[in-house]
Amino acid sequence: MKKIIVSNRIHYIGANDRRKALFENNWPLPQGVAYNSYLISDDKSILIDTLEFGSKDDYIDEIEAILQGKPLDFLVVNHMEPDHSSMIGLLLRVFPSMKIIGNNKTFKILEAYYKLNPGQFFEVSDGQELDLGYHKLKFVMTPWVHWPETMMTYDMTDKVLFSCDAFGSFGTLDGGVFDDEIDFETRYEGEMLRYYSNIVGKYSNMVQKALAKLDGVPVKFVCPSHGPVWRKDPMKVISLYDKWSKYESEPGVVIVFASMYGNTEKMADYIARLIAEKGEKNIIIHDVSKTHVSYILRDIWKYGSLILGSCAYNAGMHPMMAQLCHELEVAAPKNKRYSLFGSYSWSGGGLKMLESFSSKMSWQLAEKPVEVLGIPDHDKMEGFISIADKLI
Ligand code: FEO
Description:
This protein is of the alpha/beta class. The chain has two domains: about 5-245, Ribonuclease Z/Hydroxyacylglutathione hydrolase-like (Metallo-beta-lactamase, Chain A, 4-Layer Sandwich); about 255-390, Flavodoxin domain (Rossmann fold, 3-Layer(aba) Sandwich), CATH 3.40.50. Helices cover about 30% and strands about 25% of the residues. It is built from 13 helices and 23 strands. It has helices spanning about 60-65, 80-85, 90-95, 105-115, 185, 190-200, 205-215, 235-245, 265-275, 295-300, 320-330, 350-360, 380-390; strands at about 5, 10, 15, 20-25, 25-30, 35, 40, 45-50, 75, 100, 120-125, 130, 135-140, 150-155, 160-165, 220-225, 250-260, 285, 305-315, 315, 335-345, 365, 370-375. Helix 6 (about 190-200) packs across helix 10 (about 295-300), helix 7 packs across helix 8 (about 235-245) and helix 9 crosses helix 13 (about 380-390). It is elongated and about 80 Å long. The protein starts with a strand and ends with a helix.
């Protein structure tokens, strides 16, 4: 690989994973994912986060080529999740005297995962500093972004923030590593929001706390553990995460339906047309049985209005809609105006279950739901006029 320098003596040594189909064995990766790792070769050398095991077979060679015979003095474990920590064992075989930097929560989880010698642990607390020679690092505790032990490492010399999962994105780095080398809006913004809403969004209040800690701290580089590295406009990614973690949405309506034989789908198309006639241009319809929940969750996070519709299924809602509702309950996007609809053939249950779900969300009901028996012909759709009126 060509050397990739972030700033003085700071090397990017990450890996692209184009083989993994599902992140955390759950979230699709059609554009892959990058695991970012950074090596600072200073008077003291330090590696900031590792990679997922097996994602880069020449990782150790690359570290040795940069260190040129010097030992690796430290490894910072900003976050213990194995996509960043599972190369520790291999590193210790090559650099057995390496100290592992983490906080009091890190080591508990590290010991649960790996057989490590606690004598190698170097515990740091919030605000603690470490002098490497040219670079002076500070460790900042940012719990629950995205596990309880998560922290960030800040280089006070060159103003570099190693933020781990925060400011990360799905998507491999295809040649372009830095924000000024990529078409962010086309290639990454959607995947970044999908990553945020799927992985980090549940902890949005903790993201806000982390951002408050960074307030006023000069940042010239944002080096996350997934996705692009920011050097031209680091405030852009910080602002995006700020917006998403404050649940600020854009004008637009997401309509999600679950339909067995097409009747509930017709209702979705009907309400979408009414909304379009009101002048709304951002309308997205998702068939929950066809589109993976991760994309639907992303679009719901993005737009301010939401309509959910389900046919009745075994006296409840359709199982695919139930899965979406479960993910919504977990991630808990806020500040939504919503309505519901359903269809049934005899005793119903789809809409009732959607109502029970939505009562647990802190959303604002725009207008009462519509429920249709059998085929949704024109006479049965009047209620949708009022939903379109109130939602827009
Ligand atoms: Fe990229 Fe929470 O691990």
